[in-house]
Structure formats: C-alpha cells, structure tokens
Amino acid sequence: MESFPGATYTIAGMFASQCGAPLITSPFSAFDAGSGNNNSEDSFQPDLVCFGDVLHAAGYQQVFMGGAPISFSSKGLFYKLHGYDQALGKNELEADYQGKLPKSGWGLYDSDLFDLAIKQYKALEKAGKPFNLTVITLDTHPPHGRPSANCVPYAESPNSVLQATYCSDSLIARFIKELSNEPKFRDTVVVLMSDHLEMANDADPLYPKSYHRRPLFFVLNAGEGERKTKIYHMDVAPTVLGLMGVRTNASFIAGADRSAVGSSDSALTPDQVTYAVLRKILWSSSSGLTICDDDSLLTWAADNMFRLGGRDLKMQERGSMAVALDSDQALTFFVTAKHASALIAKDADVDKLLAERGDASALLIRPLVSAQKDGLFSIDWVGRNGAKAHIATVPRLLGVSIRSPQCRQLIERVDAEKAEKEFDFSKEFSVSTAPRTPELSSLPAVIEFNSNRDLQPYRTEVNWNPPEPWGSWTLREAAFLGFSLPRAQCQRAELEFTVQPYLTASRPVLNVGLIVNGNRVADWTFDRSQPAVQTIKVPVVTDDADCRVNLRFDYSRPGSTPPPYPVGENQTELQLYFRSLRVNASAESSLH
Q: Which UniProt keywords apply (predicted)?
C-alpha cells in the first residue's frame, strides 16, 4: 500500500478508503494548502457511492467510533452522509459516563475506546443483522503520542511516540483476541489499516534513513496469503467488498478490487496531473448555484454558516468551527456558476489565493481593527477579471444580510470589468446585522464564556477563540465585547471580570488597556508573580442614549521574545482568558 495525494491525513484517508477517490475538498486548487480538514456536504461528494452506501443498501447496521470529537473535520457528517447509522465521538461516548472518562489531549484514550468498541461489537452481533463497526485509534497522534495509562511501558525506549505505538499495538492485539472469542468471529472480516502515514513526531530521528514508509493494510478471516499488488487507499473499499463477498454494481472512480489472484497494480501515479484530472471528475457533476438568489448576496444561515448562492458555507478553520476572525485573517468565498467554497486565510496570503483562483470571483470579509475602527468588517467583491467593488462595512457578522434588487446586475458588472476598475456599491445594497450591543434584561447579569450560543450575542467576532467548557481565549492586539444596560439601570454599572492571562518564559508580562465607549477606563498589568486566575472589578459610566457599553481590550507585551516561540510553547498569540463577566448594578445608577 502506498500514499496518494488526498489521502495523507485522517479525514482524507477515511474518505479515500471508503469512496474510492482522494478527498479534494474544493474545485479550486488555491484552497488545497489550507482547507483539508474544512469540509461540508459538498466536499464529501453526496452523489458518490462509497463503502458505507453499498453496505447500507445490503442491509448492514453500521457504526463509526473514534475518541476525538466527530465535529472535527466534519467526520460525523461524512459517515452519516454515506450510509452509517451512527457516528460516535468523544462527546457521544462520554454521555453514558457523565464526562468522567479520562482524556488525552485529543480525546479519549484507546484503552477506553476499545472497551466501548467490544461492547458495541457484542450488541451488533446480538442484533442478528450483518454489521460494519469502524474504529479509529488516537493514542499515537503526533507530535508526542499519549499512551493509555494502564499499558505496560515499552522497555526499549522512553520516547513518547514509541511508548504510544507499543501501547496501541498491545490494545489492538487484546481487542482482536476478545473478538476471536465471540461466536460470530469467523464470519467477521477484520481489516486493519492506516488512515495515513505518521506525521512529523518525536520519533522522527529514530527512523532509518533508507526506510520506505507505507500505510499498513491487512485482512483477517478472508483467506490466507499475500497479493503482490500495489494499492492505494482508493482501492480499499472495492477490495474489502470483494473479500467480504459483497457484490455491487457501484463503481469506484480511482480504485478497484485488488484481492483477486493475478490482479494488477494500480495504474495511477501520485502526480499533479492525475490529481487535477480526479479533481475535474469529482467536481464536474455539481447542480450549480445562483448568485443573488432572491436578491440576496450574502446572509447569515445559522451555527456560524453563511448562505451564498443557495449554498450554506461553514466558517471553519483547520477542521474546527470558527466563531471569530483574527485581525490578520480574511474569510474568502470563491464563487463560479457551479461552485462555492469558503476558507479562512491569512490576510497576507489572500493575493496569492486570488492569483490562483482561475475563473472564479471572490467575496472577501476582512476585520478592520484600529483606534478608529472597533472591530468592523469590510465586505468586498473581486470579479473574475480582477475588478473590485466595496459592498459594505458592517459592525457584526452575526445575522448579516446584504440585499439589493439590482444584486445580480451589480455583480455581473464587476465580473465583466478589468483589474484596474474599482466600484463603491455601499449605497446600492441594504445591510442589516444582529444588534451590536444586545440589552441585558436585568442586573446583576452574568455572561459566561464557555458556550458559543450564550456568548455569540455579545460581539465576540474579532480575535476570540471558540469557547471551551471553562471559557474563551482572546488573542492578537485587541478584542471586543458589547452589551446594553437595562433602561431602568442605565448610566452606571460595575463590571466584575474573572480572567487568566497567558504568561510564559518568552511572554512573561501582559498589559491590558480597557476602553469603554472610546474612553480608557482601566489599565491592568499581569506577571508571573500573581495568581493564575484573578477577579477584577471596574466601575463604568456610559452617557450613551441607548445605554450601550462597547468594550475594547488592548494588549501589549513588554519585554517579550519575538516569535517563533520555544518548542512546546503555544505558538498562537494568546492573550487574556475570560471565564465570566458579572455586570452589577451601581448604587448611583438611575434612569437615563
């Protein structure tokens, strides 16, 4: 088995081995470098017949299990889209254990996952229907590996990756031994395979220089012997179906059954030409889209998605939901008559992306962060030939709606013009968004930073990280928050922040300036001599007629070491971590 482009990371290996084609997430080659884990229903090719679809049609009960969240890279969507009845990840598997299963940095440990998998196997076996149980391990995830706690240590080396590999190897052996004791084991085809080659990790220096690395692939209970045949991930689905004795009229674009005696090597070569041809084939059957459908250029759909041309496009970064843009990023939509794709890219990379977009137009959303512009967003259209039009400047992305009765004519006008032409259409489109400062219903009020749904109303759309169960990090040079005091308690309030600074040897001090409605009201200095978590109270006064409180947090790092930061230190420009904000009534507050 050899590697092939579009099958070199987890979701790509899953897709290629199930669907007989590499995972090519977009028809636009410009997106390849940064969007591999950013997937939608379109990128998973819903019209393609995959392994799970064949078994679903044959009456199989199908379950996927993995220790990481199934939301990452939209794994859950993929399996449910292609015939699986259940996709179970960290959150789903923890539900029966009240969140008490121990977790590695990426998810559940393999020891717990295999315990749950053997229970799942027994339940499927007992049901009496043919079934497919798909399990993916996690403990060997690079760069360090995280072996399960109850494994016997690997005596030959303290290297963490080798420890994790040794541990997972023993857990897999134990799992197969447990399976072998089950009454239906001899009727169960067991496939062991790599989703991809191990990526850069702490064991790299130990690899022999001449070692030719290949993904693992072998099958139990489907005959004996070896086939001297070169295969790729794309050959796995038809090969395993052949070994199972499942007949199908489904065809696999880039794969074939290599299990038959005398079967030939895959004729594909892993080069750019082959990859480009496969891209063309995979993305040729789209039903098309309509720009300015119902006079709407762009609208907020839900759950951090935008609707453009009749398509819902996720706001995601490196496979995870994104709730905000960093101030040095742009949300880029590439659009043709048939396709639309979304990518969050570094602002510095946008020109390169545009140069590689082919005949696509582009819609760009960029944060505007300066002393004069508190977290606004510029929305611009770049035509197929390079002409540009400014569409709108909006205070928020949440709830955005950009409409015009002449929407299509305006966009077509830009697309037809040459690169040097610029337009200002800000007065041609009507724009609305969610309120910039939602009103607190009463005081005291508590804003928790651990849920995007709860935090979303408060304008956390620039330089915020997605909320975790314990709170949310801000980053870069500034972050924003906004709300309105209740009318009956307008003018004055007390803000009570529970925060934690990010401090390391390379960034030992954090200065924070708190600006309220344009006025600097407080300066905080954090250093490593202080408690990690602090509660800070700040009185605020607003003379805004609508009782609005717009907060801006300015960050600076005196004496910090410039990046790149030391190995093992978070490379992200994390600044201040927010757990909660309590807004208390002031004794001096009155009706405005």
A: Cell membrane, Membrane, Transmembrane, Transmembrane helix
